[in-house]
């Protein structure tokens, strides 16, 4: 179906055609008509599915039919978790609105406040903001909410993970009651549904989970001892002739160290984290997008908002926590139908977290062994039917038990991946159901994650039978 059949007018259709969009992605095909009808929407759509155009295009259509805003007023408010995502969404909105007399503005911390205030004076049609900066501006009376017609919560699960719930509630309380509400989230977890109850009443619910727009990503992991990770990364870059890689790890310090280690092995890389200025981060992204920079080592802050077409590869140098972060990170590749590869370096301490991620995915991730980097301590195979206690108690009446005592699922319950051998040309490839399997998975301590609260795996229950 062409864009013109979705109820969008010519200026909008021309703008997306110029960008090379030929047909709407499935989320766009489903969401655009719903939004144009003025309905509230709750959509499960991962990054990379074209969700931004899915809400921005109909918003432009709606706003172009109405009146322009008054001073310091905003007509559509899009809340985003990070400055990178806010900047990216605003850039897309500006491109899509190029043939319309509608204005857009991104508002986030780290950007000069005076310039943002100045832009607000004339009023803005679409404001894309991070919650904290928006509340600051509201408190300073630089922006008023009384003309907001549409609210979008973009990557809502991420906003909750980042602790923005109070800010979001404060903002919502101050909005006009009569407005349209749209919520986009990679997953529709219980927390998201709680938020949706107040923020998005009586929504139409959409999901792209099984649609063809799902990014085509080959995921694999390799177990490696922590002290061998940087050597393994250099080995893979060189041996497999990687053209490009976005490499994620946990800390700024770790990122700087890895860049240094890669440099010593003749692999030029740059680090991307909150300690670098906004200007430097923007330049790094430009260089990475243009291909001038091949290897970017980023902390989680960069996992959203990086929109690089044809990014072929992301590497989880450290395994992200919580599980949603894994999904968001791998969503950096395989965007808009392109093929991508997501590689995870797994070490012994990551076992519980791996269980969580694979349970969320609903399947085991293919395991490959890279010769010369076999770990001293193999990581056991995950048990997929586990859920953290706080979620399991609602759904299951079975007795609590620790993963230490729990037997792995039988082969009958495993995914196809877990049963096949899947060798690759590049390395001896092996799925989980062989050597590294242990009958009693030993549960590694999660002490290294103590800064993030206690582990959700401290008490686990099996999910009720499906
Ligand atoms: P998003 O999921 O919104 O971050 O979009 C992911 C990427 O897909 C971005 O680079 C968009 O420019 C691109 N995109 C969005 N819609 C389409 C479309 N209909 N056809 C081709 N590319 C698209």
From TrEMBL:
Its EC number is 3.6.4.13. Residues 394-411 have a biased composition (Low complexity). The keyword Nucleotide-binding applies. Residues 443-457 have a biased composition (Polar residues). InterPro entries: DEAD/DEAH_box_helicase_dom (IPR011545), DEAD/DEAH_RhlB (IPR044742), DEAD_box_RNA_helicase (IPR050079), Helicase_ATP-bd (IPR014001), Helicase_C-like (IPR001650), P-loop_NTPase (IPR027417), RNA-helicase_DEAD-box_CS (IPR000629), RNA_helicase_DEAD_Q_motif (IPR014014). Pfam families: DEAD, Helicase_C. One of its GO terms (molecular function) is nucleic acid binding. One of its GO terms (cellular component) is cytosol. Residues 384-466 are annotated as: Disordered. Keywords: ATP-binding, Cytoplasm, Helicase, Hydrolase, Nucleotide-binding. Residues 216-376 form the Helicase C-terminal domain. Residues 416-440 have a biased composition (Basic and acidic residues). It catalyses: ATP + H2O = ADP + phosphate + H(+). A motif (Q motif) lies at residues 1-29. It comes from the Bacteria. Residues 1-29 form the DEAD-box RNA helicase Q domain. Residues 32-206 form the Helicase ATP-binding domain. GO terms for biological process: response to temperature stimulus; ribosome assembly. Belongs to the DEAD box helicase family. PANTHER family: ATP-DEPENDENT RNA HELICASE DEAD BOX FAMILY (PTHR47959:SF11), ATP-DEPENDENT RNA HELICASE RHLE-RELATED (PTHR47959). This is DEAD-box ATP-dependent RNA helicase RhpA. It comes from Enterovibrio norvegicus FF-454.
């Amino acid at each position: 179906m062409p864009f013109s059949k979705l109820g969008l007018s010519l200026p909008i259709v021309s703008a997306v055609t110029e960008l090379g969009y030929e047909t709407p992605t499935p989320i766009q095909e489903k969401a655009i008509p719903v939004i144009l009808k003025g309905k509230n929407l709750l959509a499960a759509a991962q990054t990379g599915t074209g969700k931004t155009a899915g809400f921005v295009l109909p918003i432009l259509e709606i706003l172009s039919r109405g009146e322009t805003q008054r001073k310091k007023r905003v007509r559509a408010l899009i809340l985003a978790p990070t400055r990178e995502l806010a900047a990216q969404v605003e850039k897309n909105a500006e491109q899509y609105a190029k043939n319309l007399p509608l204005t857009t503005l991104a508002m986030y911390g780290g950007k000069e406040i005076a310039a943002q205030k100045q832009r607000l004076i004339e009023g803005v049609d679409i404001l894309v903001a991070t919650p904290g900066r928006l509340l600051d501006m509201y408190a300073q009376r630089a922006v008023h909410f009384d003309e907001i017609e549409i609210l979008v919560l973009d990557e809502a699960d991420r906003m909750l993970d980042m602790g923005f719930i109070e800010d979001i509630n404060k903002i919502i309380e101050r909005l006009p009651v009569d407005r349209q509400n749209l919520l986009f989230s990679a997953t529709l977890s219980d927390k998201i549904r709680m938020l949706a109850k107040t923020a998005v009443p009586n929504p139409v619910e959409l999901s792209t989970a099984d649609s063809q727009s799902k990014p085509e990503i080959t995921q694999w992991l390799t177990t490696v001892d922590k002290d061998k990770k940087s050597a393994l990364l250099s080995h893979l870059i060189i041996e497999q002739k990687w053209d490009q890689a976005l490499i994620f790890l946990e800390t700024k310090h770790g990122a700087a160290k890895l860049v240094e280690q890669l440099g010593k092995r003749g692999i030029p890389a740059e680090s991307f984290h909150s300690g670098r200025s906004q200007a430097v981060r923007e330049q790094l992204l430009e260089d990475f997008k243009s291909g001038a920079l091949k290897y970017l080592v980023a902390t989680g802050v960069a996992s959203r908002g990086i929109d690089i077409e044809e990014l072929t590869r992301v590497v989880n140098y450290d395994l992200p926590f919580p599980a949603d972060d894994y999904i968001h990170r791998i969503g950096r590749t395989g965007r808009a139908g392109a093929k991508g590869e997501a590689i995870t370096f797994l070490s012994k301490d990551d076992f519980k977290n791996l269980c969580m991620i694979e349970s969320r995915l609903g399947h085991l991730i293919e395991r490959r062994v890279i010769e010369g980097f076999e770990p001293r301590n193999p990581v056991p195979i995950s048990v997929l039917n586990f859920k953290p206690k706080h979620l399991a108690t609602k759904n299951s009446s079975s007795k609590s038990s620790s993963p230490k005592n729990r037997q792995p699922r039988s082969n009958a319950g495993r995914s196809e991946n877990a049963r096949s051998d899947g060798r690759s040309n590049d390395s001896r490839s092996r799925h989980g159901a062989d050597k590294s399997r242990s009958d009693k998975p030993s549960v590694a301590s999660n002490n290294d994650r103590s800064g993030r609260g206690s582990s959700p795996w401290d008490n686990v229950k099996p999910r009720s039978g499906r």
